[in-house]
Amino acid sequence: MGAIQVELTGGGFPLVEVLGPAAIIVAAVFGAMFAARQANRRQGRQLDAESERLGMQLDAENVRLREQLAHDREMRERDEIKTTVTDVMEHAYLIRDLGSKHVAQVTTFEVTMKQVADLERDGKDEEAAGTRESMLEINIPSLNSETYSALVGALTKGHSNGERLSVRLGLEHPIVTSYEKWLVDFKSSMDLYKLDDGVGPTGEEAAERTRRGAVQAVQFGTFLGAVQAWFGDRPRT
Question: Residues with Cβ < 8 Å from 215, sequence gap 6 or more?
Fold first, then answer.
C-alpha cells in the first residue's frame, strides 16, 4: 500500500507530512475517546437531572406523609378527647339525676313530717299516726340512704372525671373550668338537703336552697355550652 503524501505550503517552502495506518488508528481512538467522554458528560447531566427530579419527588412525598400522619394523629387525639368529654358529660347527667332524686326524697320526708307535726299540734293524733304510718311504708329514709350513697359515689367519680378532662384538655380549657365549677356548685346545693328529725327548712334556708339550685343549674348550662362549642354536637338538654 503506497504512502499518502500531503503537501502543505506556507512560509515560502513545502512541508510534507506522511500519514500511515498507525496515525489513522490513533486518530480514530482519540476520536472514539472524545465521543465517549461527550456521551458520558451528557449521560451524567441526564442522571443528575433525573436524580434531582427524584429527590424533589421524594421530598414532596415525605412532606405529604408527614402532613398525613400529623392529621391522622390529630384526628385520633380528637376522637379520644371527644370520647372522654362524652363520658364525663353523660356521668354529669347521672350526678344531676341522682341529685334530683335525693332532693325529691328529702323534700317529701320534710313535708310529710311537717304534716304529722301540724296534726299532732291540732290534737289529731289518730290522723297524725296514719300519716306517719304511710311514711314508714314508703320508707323514705331508707330510700334516701341508697340514693345518697349512690350520689356520693357518683360525685367521687365526677372529681376523677375532672382530672381526666384536665389531662386531655389542660387545666384552663373552658370545658374543664366550667365542669369543675359546676361540681363545686352542685355539692354546695346538695349540702342543704339532709334528712334530720323531719324539721323542715326555715324561710331563709328554703331561699338559700333555691338560690344554690339556680346557680348550679346555670353552671351546668355553661358546661354544656363549652362542650357544644368545642365539638359542635348538641348535648342533651
Answer: 185, 188, 189
CA distances for 195 relative to 87, 107, 112, 145, 150, angstroms: 31, 9, 12, 9, 16
- Containing 18, the helix (H) or strand (E) segment is strand 13-19
**Distance, CA of 116 to CA of 23 (rounded, Å):** 138
Contact between 116 and 132 (Cβ < 8 Å): yes
pLDDT in tens, the chain (237 residues): 444 444 444 444 443 444 456 666 766 666 667 666 776 777 767 777 777 777 777 777 777 777 777 776 777 878 888 889 999 999 999 999 999 999 998 888 888 777 777 777 777 777 777 777 777 666 677 777 888 899 999 999 999 999 999 998 999 999 999 999 999 999 999 999 887 655 678 889 899 999 999 999 999 999 999 999 987 754 444
Query: Any idea where the domains of the chain sit in the sequence?
Result: 84-231
Instruction: Give the DSSP H or E segment for 237.
Output: none
- Write the CA distances from 89 to 80, 158, 222, integer angstroms: 14, 10, 12
